[in-house]
Amino acid sequence: MLILQGSNALSKFRINKLLSVVQTHTPEIISIQTRFIHFVNENKALDKKEDAQLNELLNYGESYNSFIKGSQLIAIPRPGTISPWSSKASDIAHNSGLNKIIRIERGVIYLFEIPSGKKLTKGQIEKITPLIHDRMTEIIIEDENEAVKLFNTTEPTPIEKIDILNKGIDELEKANLNMGLALSQDEINFLFSNFSELKRNPTDVELMMFAQANSEHCRHKIFNTKWIIDDTKKEDSLFSMIKQTYKKNSGNILSAYDDNAAVMEGFSGLRFFADPKKHQYEYKNEKIHLLIKVETHNHPTAISPYPGAATGSGGEIRDESATGRGGKPKAGLTGFTVSNLNIPGYEQPWEKDNGKPERIVSALDIMVEGPIGAASYNNEFGRPALCGYFRTYEQESSSSIYGYHKPIMLAGGYGMIRESHVKKQNIPANAKLVVLGGPAMLIGLGGGAASSMASGASDASLDFASVQRDNAEMQRRCQEVIDTCWSLGNDNPILSIHDVGAGGLSNALPELVSASSRGAKLKLREIPNDESSMSPMGIWCNESQERYVLAIGDKKIKQFEKFCKRERAPFAILGNSTEKEQLILDDSFFKNRVIDIPMSILLGEIPKKIKNVISETNENKKFQTDSLEIEKTVDRILRLPAVGSKSFLITIGDRSISGLAVRDQMVGPWQVPVSDCAITSSSYYDFIGEAMAIGERSPIALIDAPASGRMAISEAILNIAAARIQKIEDISLSANWMAACGESGEDVKLYNTVSAISQLCQELGICIPVGKDSLSMSTVWINEKKQRKVIAPVSLNISAFSRVIDVRQSLTPQLIKDHESLLLFIDLANGKKRLGGSALCQVYNKTSNETPDLENAKILIAFFQSLQILNESNLISAYHDRSDGGLFVTLCEMAFAGHIGIDINLNSSGDLIENLFNEELGAVIQIHKKNEKIIKKVFVESGLDQKMIHTIGTINKNYKFNIKFNKKDVFIAEMSDLHGKWSETSYQLQALRDNPECAKQEYESITNQNDPGIFVKIPFEIEKNTPSINKGIKPKMAVLREQGINGQIEMAAAFDRVGFDCVDIHMQDLIDKQIKLDSFDGLVACGGFSYGDVLGAGGGWAKTILYNDMLRKMFEDFFNRAGTIGLGVCNGCQMMSQLRELIPGASSWPDFVRNKSEQFEARLVMVEIMDSPSVFLKDMVGSKLPIVIAHGEGRALKRSTQKKSYPTIRYIDNTGDVTEQYPKNPNGTENGLTGFTNKDGRFTIMMPHPERVFLTKQFSWFPEQWTNEYSPWIKLFLNAKESLN
Question: Whole-model pTM above 0.85?
Answer without folding.
Answer: yes
